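The protein record filed here:
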Amino acid sequence: MKVQQRSREKILIRTKIRVPLITSAGREMTGEVHTFSGLSDGLEHLAIGLGNYSAATRPLVRIHSECLTGDVLGSARCDCGPQLHESLERISERGGVLLYMRQEGRGIGLYNKLDAYALQDLGYDTFEANRQLEFADDERDYRPAAQMLEALGITHVDVLTNNPDKVVQLRRHGIHVYGMERTGVFLSAHNRRYLEAKVRTTRHELAVRI
């Protein structure tokens, strides 16, 4: 067990373990999984270090919000699963960290996300459905992501994302972001409306015609 403390915010790195990972393309890699205590939202987020992340001068960082339906069950109505596997491969090659955030459904929780799915099936887009449930378009707070990076001694990064809000929030919380690298566009007939809504409502940088 490796324990490390950052005095100002008292974030503890509690455990580091090495786990084998296999991507959807069949590539094998090893990740160092860090757990934390003292994060601002009290949730069980993970940081997975890949490649030579501790020595990288510009580590590549992906903030990936948990998506049970996409990451685990392979749902085609979002692009979360393909983004996760692409991120693992690109970060492993470059050296960096994948932050797996327990912020299901853009922060509204799994049950509420499933309720939002039912509303989407009635014709609402992903953001309109959240509003029908009296949530904001995006409830996620990335302060814990910044806290985890700082606890790992990582303060200067490139961010792997199509979502400019992640960059804005990391900078707000003291992380120097050199640049924003886009993920692939995993467009299909099943997720077109979902991706179009992200471009239209939250200015995601996706090459999707709306």
